C-alpha cells in the first residue's frame, strides 16, 4: 500500500547517509554519522588501564557516555548508554585486552528521528577508526509500524511521533569474505540475519514486528555496504593491495 | 522542515567547539522583574581530552564558563530587557550550551566565539499578548510568525595570551602543548569598539605593565578582526539564503547582496532565518556551504554557480584584509600598531584559524554543487546520495598553516587540502573543472 511520507520517500527508502571519520584530533578514534538531519558524533578513547568496580576484570570493558544536545543528563540518556554498551560489548572481542576500559563518547548534534540507530552506527565507525578489535560491525536501523500495518524505515521525528510503535534493530554487518566459503552460516541461516539488539517502543502486533524485521534486514544490507565503503576508503593503500 | 537556528560550530586550529542556544519562558528573578536571563553551560565532554571526566565540572570548566559569562553579561552585550514578555511574570531565559568536542588549546576564545555565533543566529518565537485582559501570552510558532533574533549590542571577543618563563616570550592563542608549559596566561575580552569588557589573569608569573598594555593593544586588533569575520560569515549565510532568488550575473548579485546587506549588517537583526551551514576558514576565505533541504535543487544549483564567483570575489577582498592575520611565518608584520621593542610573535599566531560554521544537521548537497568550478569546496562530510559512499575526513585546520600566502581562489583551497583529501575530492567531484 502506498503511503505518503512527508519528505516524499517511499516506505523502504532510507535518508541520505553521510559518514566521516577521524574528525577529532585528541580522541583515538572519532566518527560522525548522519542520516538525513539526524547527526551524531562519536569519539573513542582506546583501552585505558583498569576496569570499574562492577566490571569483570578478566575482560575488556566498554564505557559509554551519552551527551544530549542541550539539557541535563536524565533517564533516557542513561538508557541509551546501557543499550549502546550492551550492543558494543557483543561485537567487540573482549578477551583481547583484559582489564582495560574503552570509552565511547556520543554527542548528539541534532535529533530528527532514529537517534539511537544513528548513534550505534557512529560508534561502530569510531571504534574502527580507533582500531579496537571487533568480531564484526553492526548496522542499526529504525523501523516503525503504523496503525494500518504497513511498516516504514528510518522515520523522521515527526513520523516517529505519529506511529503506533517503532523498533530499533541492530544487525551484524554482512561479511565479505576473500575465501570461497562466503558468509558463515549459523545453524543454517546466514550470520547477518541474526539480531544483535532490538528495542521497541509502543505497541505492535507480532506479525508487524516480524514484518519490520524483514524490512530492516533488507535495509541493513544497504547500510552494511555503505559502512564498508566509507571505512574502506580511508584504509591505507597497502592493505587494500593485500586483499 | 527548517533547521533550528541558534547553533554554531567553531574550529580554532585543533580546538573544536559547538554551541547551542535555546530559550524558554520562565518567571523572572524578583529583583529584576523586567529582564530576561542568560545562562551559560559548558560541557567539557570527555571526547575532547582524555583528562576530562563527566560529573562535576573541573576548575577550568568553571573558569571558562565564568569568563564567557562575564564577557556577555556584564558588558551588556545581550539586551536582556528586550527579553521581557510580561513584566514580573514571564521573561525569556536564554540558555547557551557549549560543548567542547576537541581540546586543541585555548578553549576560552573558541568557546566565546561559539557562544556569540550561536546567539547571533538564534531566533526566538514571537510572543504577543492576547486573551481577555491582554494578560495571556501567546507564543507564535515559527510557521505562523517569523521568529525574532536577539538584540545584541556588541560582540565581546576573548583573546588569550600565554606567558613563558623567558621574559619576552609571549604567544597569542596557545595550543594545548603550549598551555602545558606556559607559566602564566591572560584573557582579555574586548569588542570591536575598543572597549575592554573583561580581563582575567589568574595568578601565574608576574608580568610587566608594558607587556600587559601591549597585550591589550594586540587584543583590540584581534577583536576587530574576529568580529569582522563573524559578521561576514553570518552575512554570507544570509546572502546565500537570499542569493537563491537573485539574478545569475555575478555583478548584479554582488551589488544586490551589498544592498540587502545594509539593513542587516548594521543591526544584525535581519529577519532572515539562517538555515545554511557555513564553513569559512579564515585564512582562505573559502565558503563551504551545504544547502538546505527545502531550497529547490535546480534553483540552488544555479545560485551556487552564480554565487561562487561572488564568493571568490569576496574571498579575495577579504583575503587581503585577513592576509595579515593568517600569516604564520614572520608574523611581526601582522600587528603594526604594537611596539617593536620586542617580538611577541616569535612563535607566530599559532592556531588562529577560525572556521565559524553553523552546525549542520544533514548534508544534503545537490550533486551539482560538487561541480563547483572553483573547486573551492573543502568538504567536511561526504555528499549524500541515495547511498553515498564517500568518507572525507574533515581536514584539520592545521593544514591552513602550510599556506601563508594568498593566491587565487582555486589555489588556496588546493594548498589547504591535504594531499590525501585532494585525492578523495577528485574521486567524487570527478566532473569538477578545477580540481
Average pLDDT of chain B, to the nearest integer? Answer: 65
The rounded Rg of chain A comes to 18 Å
- Largest protein-protein interface: A-B, 49 and 48 residues
Beta-sheet strand percentage of chain B? Answer: 15-25%
Order of helices and strands of chain A: EEEEHEHEEHEEEEHH
> In angstroms, what separates the terminal alpha carbons of chain A?
44 Å
Low-confidence stretches of chain A: 238-243
The CATH class of chain A turns out to be Alpha Beta
User: Pairing-aware structural class of the strands and helices of chain A?
Assistant: alpha+beta
Strand content of chain A: 25-35%
Low-confidence stretches of chain B: 244-435
Helical amount of chain B:
25-40%
Mean pLDDT across all residues of chain A, rounded? 84
Considering the chains and any ligands shown, give keywords for the structure.
A: 243 residues; alpha+beta; five-stranded mixed sheet; four-stranded antiparallel sheet; 5 helices; B: six-stranded mixed sheet; 8 helices; elongated
What do these coordinates show?
The complex is a heterodimer of chains A (243) and B (435). By secondary structure, chain A is an alpha+beta fold. Chain A has a single domain, classed as Ribosomal Protein S5, domain 2 (2-Layer Sandwich). Helix content of chain A is 30%, strand content 29%. Chain A has five helices and eleven strands. In chain A, strands 1-2-3-5-4 form a five-stranded mixed β-sheet. A four-stranded antiparallel β-sheet of chain A has the order 7-6-8-11, with helices on both faces. In chain A, strands 9-10 form a two-stranded antiparallel sheet. In chain A, a hairpin with a 2-residue loop joins strand 9 and strand 10. In chain A, helix 1 packs across helix 2. The C terminus of chain A is likely disordered. Helices cover 31% and strands 20% of the residues of chain B. The C terminus of chain B is likely disordered. Chain B has 435 residues and is an alpha+beta fold. Chain B contains eight helices and 16 strands. In chain B, helix 4 crosses helix 5. In chain B, strands 1, 2, 3, 4, 5 and 16 form a six-stranded mixed β-sheet that branches. In chain B, strands 11-10-12-13 form a four-stranded antiparallel β-sheet. The chains are: A alpha+beta (243), B alpha+beta (435). The interface between A and B is large, with 49 and 48 residues.
Amino acid at each position: 500500500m502506498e503511503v505518503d511520507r512527508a519528505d516524499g520517500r517511499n516506505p523502504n527508502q532510507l535518508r541520505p547517509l553521510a559518514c566521516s571519520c577521524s574528525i577529532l584530533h585528541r580522541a583515538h578514534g572519532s566518527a560522525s554519522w548522519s542520516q538525513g538531519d539526524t547527526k551524531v558524533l562519536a569519539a573513542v578513547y582506546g583501552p585505558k588501564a583498569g576496569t570499574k568496580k562492577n566490571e569483570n576484570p578478566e575482560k575488556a570493558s566498554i564505557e559509554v557516555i551519552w551527551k544530549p544536545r542541550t539539557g541535563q543528563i536524565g533517564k533516557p540518556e542513561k538508557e541509551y548508554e546501557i543499550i549502546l554498551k550492551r550492543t558494543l560489548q557483543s561485537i567487540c572481542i573482549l578477551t583481547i585486552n583484559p582489564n582495560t576500559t574503552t570509552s565511547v563518547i556520543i554527542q548528539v548534534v541534532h535529533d530528527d528521528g532514529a537517534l539511537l540507530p544513528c548513534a550505534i552506527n557512529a560508534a561502530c565507525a569510531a571504534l574502527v577508526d580507533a582500531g579496537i578489535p571487533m568480531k564484526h560491525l553492526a548496522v542499526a536501523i529504525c523501523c516503525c509500524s503504523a496503525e494500518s500495518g504497513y511498516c516504514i524505515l528510518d522515520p523522521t521525528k515527526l513520523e516517529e511521533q505519529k506511529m503506533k510503535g517503532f523498533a530499533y534493530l541492530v544487525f551484524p554487518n554482512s561479511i565479505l569474505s576473500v575465501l570461497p566459503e562466503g558468509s558463515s552460516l549459523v545453524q543454517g541461516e546466514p550470520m547477518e540475519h541474526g539480531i544483535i539488539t532490538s528495542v521497541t517502543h509502543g505497541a505492535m502486533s507480532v506479525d508487524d514486528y516480524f514484518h519490520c524485521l524483514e524490512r530492516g534486514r533488507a535495509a541493513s544490507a544497504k547500510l552494511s555496504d555503505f559502512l564498508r565503503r566509507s571505512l574502506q576508503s580511508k584504509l591505507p593503500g597497502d592493505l587494500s593491495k593485500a586483499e | 522542515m527548517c533547521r533550528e537556528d541558534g547553533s554554531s560550530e567553531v574550529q580554532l586550529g585543533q580546538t573544536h567547539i559547538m554551541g547551542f542556544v535555546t530559550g524558554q519562558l520562565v518567571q523572572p528573578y524578583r529583583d529584576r522583574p523586567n529582564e530576561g536571563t542568560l545562562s551559560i553551560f559548558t560541557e567539557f565532554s570527555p571526547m575532547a581530552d582524555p583528562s576530562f571526566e563527566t560529573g562535576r565540572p573541573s576548575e577550568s570548566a568553571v573558569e571558562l564558563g565564568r569568563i564567557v559569562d562575564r564577557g556577555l553579561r556584564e558588558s551588556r552585550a545581550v539586551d536582556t530587557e528586550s527579553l521581557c514578555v510580561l513584566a514580573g511574570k514571564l521573561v525569556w531565559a536564554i540558555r547557551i550550551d557549549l560543548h567542547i568536542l576537541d581540546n586543541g588549546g585555548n578553549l576560552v576564545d573558541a568557546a566565546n566565539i561559539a557562544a556569540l555565533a550561536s546567539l547571533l543566529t538564534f531566533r526566538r518565537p514571537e510572543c504577543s499578548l492576547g486573551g481577555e485582559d491582554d494578560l495571556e501570552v501567546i507564543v507564535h510558532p515559527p510557521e505562523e510568525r517569523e521568529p525574532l533574533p536577539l538584540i545584541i549590542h556588541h560582540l565581546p571577543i576573548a583573546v588569550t595570551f600565554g606567558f613563558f618563563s623567558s621574559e619576552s616570550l609571549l604567544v597569542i592563542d596557545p595550543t594545548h602543548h603550549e598551555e602545558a608549559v606556559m607559566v602564566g596566561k591572560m584573557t582579555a575580552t574586548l569588542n570591536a569598539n575598543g572597549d575592554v569588557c573583561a580581563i582575567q589573569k589568574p595568578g601565574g608569573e608576574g608580568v610587566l605593565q608594558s607587556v600587559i598594555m601591549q597585550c591589550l593593544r594586540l587584543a583590540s586588533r584581534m577583536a576587530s578582526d574576529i568580529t569582522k569575520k563573524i559578521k561576514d560569515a553570518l552575512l554570507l549565510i544570509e546572502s546565500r539564503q537570499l542569493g537563491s532568488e537573485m539574478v545569475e550575473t555575478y555583478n548584479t548579485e554582488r551589488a544586490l547582496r551589498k544592498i540587502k546587506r545594509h539593513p542587516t549588517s548594521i543591526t544584525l537583526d535581519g529577519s532572515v532565518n539562517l538555515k545554511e551551514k557555513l564553513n569559512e576558514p579564515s585564512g582562505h576565505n573559502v565558503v563551504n556551504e551545504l544547502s538546505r533541504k527545502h531550497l529547490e535543487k535546480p534553483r540552488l544549483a544555479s545560485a551556487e554557480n552564480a554565487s561562487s564567483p561572488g564568493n571568490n570575489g569576496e574571498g579575495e577582498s577579504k583575503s587581503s584584509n585577513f592576509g595579515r592575520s593568517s600569516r604564520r611565518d614572520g608574523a611581526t608584520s601582522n600587528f603594526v600598531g604594537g611596539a617593536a621593542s620586542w617580538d611577541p610573535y616569535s612563535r607566530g599566531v599559532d592556531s588562529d584559524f577560525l572556521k565559524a560554521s553553523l552546525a549542520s544537521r544533514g548534508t544534503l548537497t545537490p550533486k551539482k554543487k560538487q561541480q563547483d568550478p572553483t573547486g573551492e569546496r573543502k568538504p567536511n562530510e561526504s555528499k549524500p546520495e541515495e547511498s553515498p559512499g564517500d568518507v572525507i575526513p574533515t581536514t584539520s585546520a592545521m593544514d591552513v598553516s602550510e599556506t601563508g600566502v594568498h593566491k587565487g581562489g582555486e589555489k588556496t583551497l588546493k594548498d589547504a587540502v591535504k594531499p590525501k583529501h585532494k585525492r578523495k575530492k577528485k574521486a567524487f567531484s570527478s566532473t569538477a573543472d578545477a580540481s
